[in-house]
Structures are given as C-alpha cells and as structure tokens.
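[#protein-structures] MJ: dropping glutathione transferase here for a structure pass
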Amino acid sequence: MAIKIYGSFRWPFAMAAGLAVYEKDQEFELVRMDMKLPEYMNNFNPFGKSPSYQDEDIILFESKAIMKYVATKFDGQGSPLLGSTVHEQALCNQWLEVHSHSFTPPHRVISKAIFRNPEQPDASVVKPALEAFEKVLDIYEARLSASKYLAGDSYTLADLTHTPFFYMFNAIADEGAQKLLTSRKHVYAWIQDISSRPAWKKLTDRPENKYYKRSRYSSNRDKSCP
Ligand SMILES: N[C@@H](CCC(=O)N[C@@H](CS)C(=O)NCC(=O)O)C(=O)O
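AK: finished. structure tokens for glutathione transferase:
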C-alpha cells in the first residue's frame, strides 16, 4: 500500500510529515478528508486533527510520531534524520520538544491572529506573542551560533519540523515581524539552509501547495489552523 497522509498543505504539521517521507526518498498520497467526520475520527485520529499517516503496517497520528516512525522504518534510505550519535539523537529529541512546547505556542497565536484579520491583526494579541517568539528565537540564535544544526553537525527531524513553520510565517507575517528572523544571523542562515533542501523544494512544488504562495492578504485562508 502506498503511503497516505491525511491532511492539507494549509497546515505546517502535515507538510512536516510529508517532508519526512520525501527526505527518506519515499512517495505519498495526500488525502483530504473532513477531520470531524466519524469516518476520520474512528479510523485515523479520534482527536479530529491532521495529519494522520497510513501505510501497509500502521495508522498513526501526531506529526512527530509520524516523522520518527518514517525515519526509523526507512533507515538506510534517503537522509538520516535521527542523529548520527547517541548524543545527537538525544539533542534531536530535546529540540523536537522545544518545537512543540516553546516554538509552536507563540507561532500559533500570531498565525491565528493574522488569519482572523489579515488586514489588521489584533495588536493586543500579536504583540505579546511576538515578544514571546523573539525570546524563543534568541535561544535558537545562541544554539545555532555554536552548532550548524539544532542537534549538532547533522540535519535531523529537529530541523525538519521547523521548515514549514518558517515558510508559513514568511508568507503571512509583515515586514516588521519578518525582521525577527532576518535580524538573527545564525537563525536566518539556518532557515535558508533547511529551506534549500531538495526534499523541501519537491514538497512545495506539489500542486497541493497553494495556500502560502500568495501574499499575506490572500482571502484563501483556513481560519482553523494552526
Ligand atoms: N500535535 C499535533 C498538532 C496537530 C494540529 O494541531 N493540527 C491542526 C492542523 S495544523 C488541526 O488539525 N486543526 C483542526 C482542529 O483542531 O480542529 C501534531 O503535531 O500533529
């Protein structure tokens, strides 16, 4: 059975799952389904969220569990994504946790506020979230000034999971907010590096990737996510 990812490229979590599949030189079908339908919730994710993953052996939800499974299952194919030493593996897991618990929360608040009102996002919501995001980025800047990738010398899932989130941020944030990235030399170089990988280009070249190619004022927005 071909790999299927249930979700949409509107959502960075689904893009990250697809990116892991591509980094392992595998192909996948992107399947759209109403996530609140019993058919989806009973078979794929009882929480009614995207992405979910299916192959001949397993059905999985939670993007990081999907990425780790794919990286392990296709060990020896494509790019190694789990770290090449025990040390790197531990740091990869650590930074995946940082992504979930420190990076994603302010990113989510900022994105939601922009989706809700692209012309004039609520400053009382966006300002504190940008301040929180800035503090997180300072920690990334310190880390990336000491090490090429988050876990060490090798590109891992810890880096991969961030790529679609920066892609989305770049597309929807105004110039002031984008300066948070461009003004941090090491963060910015890292974003350019992880965004120039062939697997990411292949993913963003897919026809389903149509949501963030337009300006931040596009009306074609899904307000439910991230
Ligand atoms: N921790 C989850 C987050 C998944 C998530 O929040 N998915 C959003 C799309 S980005 C979703 O399905 N939102 C729809 C909803 O909450 O109803 C993961 O990493 O997969």
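MJ: nice. The CA atoms of residues 108 and 226 lie 6 Å apart.
AK: one more thing. The pocket of glutathione is lined by residues 11, 13, 35, 48-51, 62-64, 224-226 (CB under 6 Å).
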